[in-house]
Q: What sequence folds into this?
């Protein structure tokens, strides 16, 4: 590890820390309907949207109605994206002439579910599959909508802690509208312009056919990239315009654009911790959550950076120089862009898997065994290390409920969090969410590892080779485990050595994404409704403080222990065994 690498990591964290409070305060003001500097411009637009959609912004919803609105919106969004992909040949902005033949029904289902659930898993090559219209009206639109839905759910859960005693937790349509209009859209516009200044392309031109120096023909894909790139990062979506994602020079051309993209990924998730503190009237609570997230993030960066800079043990044993010098980077450079190097690749991989983004600037499949273990374990922790837009906060609050429950068991008191007694309903709902997510990852991964797919059958249409399309042994298991962890965790990145564009993977990964999104959101909304209807209890001498180092340590411990106990057997057969074999 080098001083330059650590300096870049320190600068990145300093930028996030500096923006957490101001943006968190702004989001709190927006969600609570208070006047802000954008109100004179955007308030008339907001009112017009409500009038067109028939929404009464003063009418609030019980948690069941809130959940119903979320499910209805998500179902409509998925069906719309499915239809757009199947009809892309007849829609505008399609200079390449892509049609339904580029998108099979199972792939269409997978993609529609993927972008609706904020996963952005891509089993296809975007630049050879989807038209500009689908990329813009389908994928980019869903990047805004799915991120806004996640933010709305987080705010609804926070209201459960902040209010007393009421039967409502807000209005889904209002929360989502404000999230897009005041937060996601303005920042995305600015970010897209900055990315354009760095060389990220934005056009509607047909692909360019160039002649190489050897006389061969090469097709250079292009399109409206910057507009999708900005919200892809800000909304913690991750779906790339190109198959190489943020390793492609048209998506991520410079070290500055690379830092900006990582900054956008963490910007809103970090700020929401302060929003949480503002809304519960105790900013110390928000900083406690932020500290726990930051500790887990830093630990992941350290491990990933250490093992990637250390290099592959087998090459080191062969006498190949693995130490960084003035003339060579050392370490494991396989699958990494020389523009970014090991430090920025390890940092990017940690940030994107902490934040359920799924964007990549290096090939995770080429990481060392323990370097690759970090992004995989980050996802399996529940995407709570800052996490996605909204998803990180509501996931960490779920762990906070378990942490105070465990603390209550240890001291023999009824657990409390922010003045609300945590009773069996809240604990049961949290455990249901955790068990369902773990079941989705492990059961689908296990089935995919042992089912003998018939050659040339429907689930294996490519013939015998498709049954062994991933690597054999420990690394092959890691690829399968990563795929279902990424899908269930709504992340979208991959150990891309596995070929997932087959009916089996498209369908099962699609269901894993649905389970990961909605089987976590519904129990959390039930918790929000239950807590909102409960009175706050006054602080007493026996109240466990949830804003100090002891609580932060307990929260971190619960996150790690739950993740380790749940997934260690599978991880020990994958990346751990792979490391020991080297």
A:
């Amino acid at each position: 590890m080098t001083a330059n690498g650590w300096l870049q990591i320190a600068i990145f964290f300093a930028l996030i820390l500096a923006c957490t409070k101001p943006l968190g305060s702004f989001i709190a003001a927006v969600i609570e309907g208070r006047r802000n500097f954008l109100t004179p411009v955007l308030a008339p637009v907001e009112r017009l949207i409500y009038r067109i959609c028939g929404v009464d912004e003063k009418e609030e919803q019980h948690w069941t109605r809130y959940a119903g609105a979320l499910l209805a919106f998500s179902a409509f969004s998925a069906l719309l994206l499915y239809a757009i992909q199947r009809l892309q040949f007849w829609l505008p902005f399609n200079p390449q002439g892509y049609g339904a033949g580029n998108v099979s029904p199972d792939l269409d289902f997978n993609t529609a579910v993927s972008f609706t659930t904020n996963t952005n898993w891509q089993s296809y090559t975007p630049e050879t599959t989807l038209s500009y219209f689908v990329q813009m009206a389908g994928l980019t639109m869903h990047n805004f909508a799915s991120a806004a839905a996640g933010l709305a759910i987080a705010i609804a859960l926070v209201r459960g802690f902040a209010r007393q005693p009421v039967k409502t937790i807000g209005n889904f349509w209002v929360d989502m509208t404000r999230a897009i209009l005041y937060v996601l859209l303005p920042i995305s516009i600015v970010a897209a312009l900055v990315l354009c200044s760095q060389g990220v392309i934005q056009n509607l031109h047909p692909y360019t056919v160039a002649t190489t120096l050897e006389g061969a023909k090469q097709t250079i894909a292009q399109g409206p990239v910057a507009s999708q790139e900005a919200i892809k990062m800000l909304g913690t979506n991750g779906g790339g315009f190109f198959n190489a994602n943020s390793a492609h020079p048209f998506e991520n051309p410079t070290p500055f654009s690379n830092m900006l993209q990582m900054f956008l990924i963490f910007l809103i998730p970090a700020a929401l911790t302060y929003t949480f503190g503002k809304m519960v009237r105790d900013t110390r609570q928000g900083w406690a959550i932020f500290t726990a997230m930051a500790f887990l993030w830093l630990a992941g960066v350290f491990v990933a950076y250490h093992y990637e800079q250390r290099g592959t043990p087998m090459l080191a044993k062969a006498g190949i120089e693995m130490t960084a010098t003035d003339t060579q980077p050392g370490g494991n450079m396989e699958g990494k862009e020389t523009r970014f190097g090991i430090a920025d690749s390890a940092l990017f991989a940690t940030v994107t898997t902490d934040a359920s983004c799924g964007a990549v600037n290096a090939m995770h499949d080429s990481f060392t065994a323990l370097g690759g273990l970090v992004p995989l374990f980050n996802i399996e922790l529940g995407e709570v290390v800052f996490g996605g837009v909204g998803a990180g906060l509501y996931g960490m609050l779920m762990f906070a409920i378990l942490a105070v429950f465990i603390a209550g068991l240890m001291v023999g008191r009824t657990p409390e969090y922010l003045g609300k007694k945590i009773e069996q309903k809240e604990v049961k709902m949290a455990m249901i969410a955790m068990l369902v997510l773990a079941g989705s990852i492990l059961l689908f991964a296990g089935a995919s590892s042992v089912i003998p797919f018939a050659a040339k059958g429907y689930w294996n249409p490519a013939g015998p080779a498709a049954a062994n399309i991933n690597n054999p042994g420990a690394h092959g298991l890691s690829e399968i485990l990563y795929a279902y962890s990424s899908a269930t965790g709504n992340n979208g990145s991959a150990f891309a050595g596995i070929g997932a564009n087959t009916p089996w993977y498209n369908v099962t990964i699609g269901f894993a994404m649905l389970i990961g999104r909605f089987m976590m959101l519904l129990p959390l909304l039930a918790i929000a409704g239950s807590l909102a209807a409960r009175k706050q209890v006054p602080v007493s001498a026996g109240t466990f403080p949830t804003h100090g180092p002891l609580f932060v340590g307990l929260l971190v411990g619960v996150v790690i222990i739950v993740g380790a106990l749940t997934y260690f057997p599978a991880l020990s057969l994958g990346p751990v065994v792979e490391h020991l074999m080297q």
Summary: Residues 549-581 form the longest helix (33 residues). Residues 70 and 172 are 7 Å apart (CA to CA).
